[in-house]
Design goal:
By secondary structure, the chain is of the alpha/beta class. It has two domains: about 5-130, Up-down Bundle (Four Helix Bundle (Hemerythrin (Met), subunit A)); about 140-335, Translation initiation factor eif-2b, domain 2 (Rossmann fold, 3-Layer(aba) Sandwich). Helix content is about 40%, strand content about 15%. It has helices at about 35-45, 50-70, 75-90, 95-110, 115-145, 170-180, 195-205, 215-220, 250-260, 335; strands spanning about 10, 15-20, 30-35, 150-155, 180-185, 210, 230, 235, 240-245, 260-265, 310-315, 320-325, 325-330. Bound molecules: 5-S-methyl-1-O-phosphono-5-thio-D-ribulose (MRU).
Length: about 350
Amino acid sequence: MNKLTVQALQWTGFSLKVLDQRRLPEDCVYDEYTDAAGVAEAIASMRVRGAPAIGIAAAYGIALSVCEHFLLAPLTWRALVKQDIDILARSRPTAVNLFTALNTMTAHLQGQHVTPATVLALAKKIHADDIDANHKMGELGADLLADAQGILTHCNTGALATGGYGTALGVIRSAYARQARTIYADETRPWLQGARLTAWELAQEGIPVTLIADSAAAWLMRSGAVSWIIVGADRIACNGDTANKIGTYGLAVLAKQHGVKMMVVAPTTTIDWEMPTAEDMVIEQRNQNELLPACYLQENSLVSAWNPVFDITPAALIDVIVTERGVIMQPSEQGMRSVQCR
Ligand code: MRU
């Protein structure tokens, strides 16, 4: 697999192929889905992950649902598709791109002249629009970096997490194309998106990357080697409060202490226009088995784990949010609204 073929999601014409990200970097294996329930399971089990990729997968899941039910159940297909939408909506709670995509598809389904072809065309458009947004954000973010040398990123926000190219990793790719930089990636425990996915993706691109343990970030910043932290987002409230992979909040606090700038890169599909602040955001808690060594998984074990997989960074700790519609410096509700309906 080379850089031109890193694709988390592939539409085959009649099915959705999903690169099983749990098996990277050792194995590149695609699983194939022909119904929405299968796609929902692929999202819940993290075969596909990353907010934009989750939204795109869900859109294709609805296209599969319509293809399945439209001809076989001409009178009841909308109700059957609605059941599949509900299944997809339960797959993961924090990434708002999932619900943005489901709402876009639902609005289309409520219109007239809906056919499997029009629904599939909309899913493909959601996919293409995300890639387009990534490229725009890449250039806008790279403009802000100017000659900055040291960059630290967290989790995986690249082609694997999006329709293609990436959000934070897209900015890093665009910036690196302009001039070489020193890129650091957090391991991103417990699931190791940084070690397994970001390091792998950057290597595919021919971009050198230095992996650090999450706990080394403070000392790295103290050394002066990093001038920007660049991350993605799973949900951004109207005031700029940002939910992202667990550990992002800690990085933002450390950035303030060390004079390092904090950049969040996300398409406008990641902004929750209904949510004034992060106060009511649902933070996904995943199974403690993802964290605990097997020896602690027995009955009556005295060792348990707390496993929130996202945290919230208050807008006050973010220097800039980059969207495809423009950048928001020192995010506030007014700044966020400026990209709402351009
Ligand atoms: O749990 P994950 O791997 O789905 O979490 C992914 C992240 O937190 C990413 O930073 C976010 O979705 C932005 S991806 C472009």
